[in-house]
Write a structure and sequence with these properties.
Distance between the termini: 17 Å
Number of strands: 9
Radius of gyration: 21 Å
Oligomer: single chain
CATH architecture of the largest domain: Sandwich
CATH class of the largest domain: Mainly Beta
Number of domains: 2
Length: 274
């Protein structure tokens, strides 16, 4: 558990999984390319190497004691736990989804807050009991929201087919151009109807949805990491209409591109001040 501001409360990533619970204050939180509002009870599970940060709305000299409760563990630990207790097998599926970050209801965050607080200070077998209780409640909660965009997801099992690997690679390489589903179907030696079914089966979405998702995620990277104008970003990632780009971005991220950039600059300023 740590206060805010704190040296570890910054935009960062690491190879471990983390369960985050916010006990006080409100503000913006950042997970991959996701930006959202948080309040006490905010509960998020982040996966390996997924950047994240919580920035509270505070005055210049204000602070929040014990704002964050953080439970960190490795994949190896989780696999050993499931080997010992097969009843916890659902945990591994949850961890796969954590590659994009998972938000749980604030009510669940409020429920497990006292468990996390006790876990931070207790010892011996009681720590195991508390840890198992936290993990079980997360794994059994069906009300989950994935946070970062699809390109943050690491799920090799869905893409084992060499054909789908070639297709996805081709889409990425030609994302900025006029890429049509008929061209990719021809590349795959399939009819358009067969390719449509094949693509949906392997990716869970349509060709256009996947293509636009990649373009929007690339747009997020450019908005975060470059000084290109919104218009330049629009055409750089393959959209040929600024209005359509703004509409798609708003639908996907819940805010226009300019707002997305300004909030990430807030995140950068908070990191620089830490």
């Amino acid at each position: 558990m740590h206060d805010y501001p704190h040296t570890v409360a910054k935009w960062h990533f690491h190879p471990e999984y983390e369960v985050h619970v916010i006990t006080a204050s409100g503000g913006k939180f950042f997970v991959g390319d996701f930006i959202g509002d948080f309040a006490p009870g905010n509960l998020v599970l982040t996966g390996p190497n997924l950047p994240h940060n919580w920035v509270s709305n505070l005055g210049e000299h204000d602070s929040v004691p014990s704002r964050d409760l953080v439970l960190q563990f490795s994949r190896q630990f989780a696999e050993r736990m499931v080997t010992a207790f097969p009843e916890l097998a659902a945990v591994l599926g949850m961890l796969d989804h954590a590659a994009r970050g998972i938000q749980f209801p604030d009510a669940l965050g409020t429920t497990i807050t006292p468990l996390m607080q006790e876990l931070a200070v207790t010892h011996s077998a009681r720590r195991v009991v508390l840890m198992m209780s936290v993990i079980e409640q997360l794994a059994s909660c069906a009300d989950r929201k994935l946070l970062a965009g699809p390109t943050y997801e690491v799920n090799a099992q869905r893409h084992m087919s060499s054909t789908i690997n070639q297709v996805l690679s081709y889409i990425r390489q030609n994302l900025g151009g006029n890429l049509r589903e008929t061209d990719v179907a021809e590349l795959s030696a399939m009819s358009v109807s067969s390719f449509t079914r094949f693509f949906k089966r392997h990716t869970g979405c349509t060709f256009i949805q996947y293509q636009n998702g990649l373009r929007l995620n690339e747009a997020c990277e450019l908005l975060m990491c470059t000084e290109l104008s919104v218009t330049e970003v629009c055409y750089r990632v393959g959209f040929n209409n600024l209005s359509n780009f703004n509409r798609q971005f708003l639908a996907c991220k819940g805010m226009p591109p300019s707002r997305f950039r300004s909030l990430h600059r807030l995140n950068e300023e908070a990191r620089a001040a830490a």
